[in-house]
Amino acid sequence: MTYSGHFKIKFLLYTRANTALPQVVTKTPLSIKHSHFSSARKTKFMIHGYQSCHSHWMINMAQAILTRVSLDHKHVGVGFH
Q1: What's 14-29 look like in SS3?
Q2: Is Secreted found in the keyword set (predicted)?
Q3: What end-to-end distance do the CA atoms of the chain give, in Å?
Q4: pTM check: above 0.70
Q5: Helix (H, G, I), strand (E, B) or coil at 73
Q6: Which H or E run contains 11?
Q7: Counting C-beta atoms within 10 Å of the first and last residue's C-beta, which end of the chain has fewer, N or C?
Q8: Sign of the dihedral through C-alpha 67, 12, 56, 17
Q9: What are the pLDDT digits (tens) for 16-54?
Q10: How far apart are CA 46 and CA 13, in angstroms?
Q11: What gap in Å lies between CA 26 and CA 23, rounded to an integer?
C-alpha cells in the first residue's frame, strides 16, 4: 500500500453566528482571525471519515450540538453570545 501523505482536509466552522452555512477555516492565523472562532468558547470536533462531500447529516449534527450546548448552559445560568 502506498501512502502519499496528501489529504484534502477541510475545517468547517459552525457557530451560533453561522448555523446553516459553515466557514471554511485554514491553518493560517489570518483565516482563524477572520472567522467566528473564539478560544474562549468550548470547541467540539466532528470527525466523519473519508467523504468527499459535505453531507446533510453533518449540518444536522452541528446544529444539534450548538442547540444542546446552548440549552444545557441556560439551565445553569450561563449564556452564550
Answers
A1: EECCEEEEEEEECCCH
A2: yes
A3: 48
A4: no
A5: helix
A6: strand 11-15
A7: N
A8: positive
A9: 898 888 899 998 999 999 999 999 988 888 877 766 666
A10: 10
A11: 10
Listed by start position, the domains of the chain span: 11-75
Three cell numbers at 18?
453561522
Q: What is the mean pLDDT of the chain?
A: 77
Amino acid at 52: S
* Rounded Cα distance, 44 and 61, in Å: 11
Q: What angle do CA 11, 9, 50 make, to 5 degrees?
A: 110
Q: Are 15 and 25 in contact (CB under 8 A)?
A: no
Cβ-count burial of 50 within 10 angstroms (0-12 exposed, 13-18 middle, 19+ buried)?
exposed
